[in-house]
């Protein structure tokens, strides 16, 4: 029942198809492949190869790192402040509880 | 005595969780195509270091690395834990947090409680710092029934990039099994705690960071205490720098943490050439203000934890007995999504993921895989 409500998130995480909205990076393309006869392999080829192997190419070789919060230089302006204030005990608890 | 069947994996992604889940589920694995087309191909230094760490705390595991390092064979052994007498050097290409993340899950299921001394980098801007492990990660473990009093992480000396020199002592209890959680009340932020540190630089940097951070959070909450930890001499490690970690505690006992550090970059790509070209560090005022804003960003997401620990949270849910766990997190992070996929891959366990329409948050539900500590001595 729950799954029907939210095909998008479940699909984003587990689905085979879908987009690369979560994908990162291009891999370093400087490659010196001496083992295979092919000296230059087009990046698309490599990606295709992974896809054939059933791997979501967006996730291959992404960096193994859990910390994603980057330092935010952007300030919380007055408008945002009203919203975040309700996440604090000093805020409007009734209003926050209603959500 | 059949032939060992290896689960075949590819690529360098999720290396830590693959090793962790392989060990916990006693699934031997092979990983191929580890960075085959990059300038530095094969396993990275920190990954080899991590394999050593797994070897140190377990008994009878077999690691084979092939020719160029692009292929690995790993057969897990028994998780021993216990008191490790020699200090373990964590390669300084990543900070100690990188190693702690899988270690604190692995060794819950060890034969004896772990006590280990880890050397390396205690704080950097890439991995969770040792400070937030104390202030946030341990509280997450506590929720799942891990004895909080038995957990400790003592920072004997701090070490920053590029040369490290930090030293911590970790004590971790074992469990028979975890306890499933129903953890969806994120509560309201009632206080903010934090710690700043400075190594081989003036303690004035800490004062500036604290003042800047307070400028952002004080209008929202008055109960703010940020401690200082100025280090000189050997406890300051080998590199200069400074940094800060903040944690927001909510009325429902959730801990939202953020941290960062300013230090000179590792020159792994230029192998020493960059020694003379030292860029200026980010000014302490910017760091203090930036990290406070980052904390507000995490608080705004209405999760019961901050985004860095999503992976840890999902793993713990999955490793519970066969009971339902329900948790609320903010926006799913890249690492969180990868964790969910790895859990499905190794434990064949799918979470039900539902966005909460009233907030930005996401609610996840799963039934634990029924993990029991098999190594533990039967008393």
From TrEMBL, chain B:
Residues 185-300 form the RNA 3'-terminal phosphate cyclase insert domain. GO terms for molecular function: RNA-3'-phosphate cyclase activity. Keywords: Ligase, Nucleus, Ribosome biogenesis. Residues 9-352 form the RNA 3'-terminal phosphate cyclase domain. PROSITE patterns: RTC. One of its GO terms (cellular component) is nucleolus. It is found in: Nucleus, Nucleolus. CDD domains: RNA_Cyclase_Class_I (cd00875). This is Putative RNA 3'-terminal-phosphate cyclase (ATP). It comes from Medicago truncatula.
């Amino acid at each position: 029942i729950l799954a029907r409500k939210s095909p998008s998130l479940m699909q984003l995480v587990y689905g085979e198809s879908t987009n690369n909205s979560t994908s990162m990076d291009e891999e370093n393309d400087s490659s010196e492949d001496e083992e295979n006869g092919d000296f230059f392999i087009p990046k698309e080829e490599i990606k295709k190869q992974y896809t054939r192997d059933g791997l979501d190419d967006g996730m291959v070789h992404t960096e193994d790192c859990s910390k994603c919060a980057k330092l935010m230089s952007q300030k919380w302006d007055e408008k945002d402040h009203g919203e975040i204030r309700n996440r604090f005990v000093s805020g409007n608890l009734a209003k926050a509880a209603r959500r | 005595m059949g032939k060992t069947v290896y689960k075949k994996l590819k690529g360098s992604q999720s290396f830590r969780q693959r090793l962790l889940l392989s060990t916990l589920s006693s699934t031997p694995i092979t990983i191929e195509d580890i960075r085959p087309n990059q300038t530095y191909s094969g396993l990275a230094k920190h990954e080899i270091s991590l394999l050593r760490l797994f070897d140190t705390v377990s008994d009878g595991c077999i690691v084979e690395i092939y020719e160029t390092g692009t292929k690995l064979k790993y057969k897990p052994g028994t998780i021993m834990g216990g008191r490790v007498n020699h200090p373990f050097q964590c390669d300084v290409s990543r900070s100690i947090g990188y190693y702690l993340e899988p270690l604190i899950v692995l060794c819950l299921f060890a034969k004896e409680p772990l006590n280990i001394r880890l050397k390396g980098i205690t704080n950097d801007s890439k991995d969770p710092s040792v400070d937030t492990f104390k202030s946030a990660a341990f509280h997450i473990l506590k929720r799942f029934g891990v004895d909080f009093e038995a957990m400790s992480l003592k920072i004997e000396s701090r070490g920053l990039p590029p040369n490290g020199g930090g030293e911590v002592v970790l004590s971790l209890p074992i469990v028979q099994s975890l306890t499933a959680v129903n953890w969806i009340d994120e509560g309201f932020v009632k206080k903010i705690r934090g710690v700043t540190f400075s190594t081989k630089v003036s303690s004035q940097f800490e004062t500036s960071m604290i003042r800047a951070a307070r400028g952002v959070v004080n209008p929202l909450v008055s109960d703010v205490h940020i401690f200082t930890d100025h280090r000189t001499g050997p406890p300051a490690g080998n590199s200069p720098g400074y940094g800060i970690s903040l944690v927001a505690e909510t009325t429902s006992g959730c801990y939202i943490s953020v941290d960062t550090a300013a230090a000179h970059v590792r020159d792994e790509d230029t192998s020493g050439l960059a020694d003379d070209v030292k860029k200026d560090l980010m000014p302490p005022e910017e760091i203090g203000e930036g990290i406070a804003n980052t904390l507000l960003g995490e608080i705004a997401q209405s999760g019961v934890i901050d985004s860095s620990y999503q992976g840890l949270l999902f793993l713990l849910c999955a490793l519970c007995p066969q009971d339902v766990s329900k948790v609320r997190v903010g926006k799913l992070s890249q690492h969180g999504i990868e964790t969910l996929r790895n859990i499905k891959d190794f434990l064949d366990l799918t979470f039900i993921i539902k966005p909460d329409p009233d907030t930005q948050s996401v609610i996840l539900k799963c039934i634990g895989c029924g993990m029991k500590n098999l190594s533990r001595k039967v008393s």
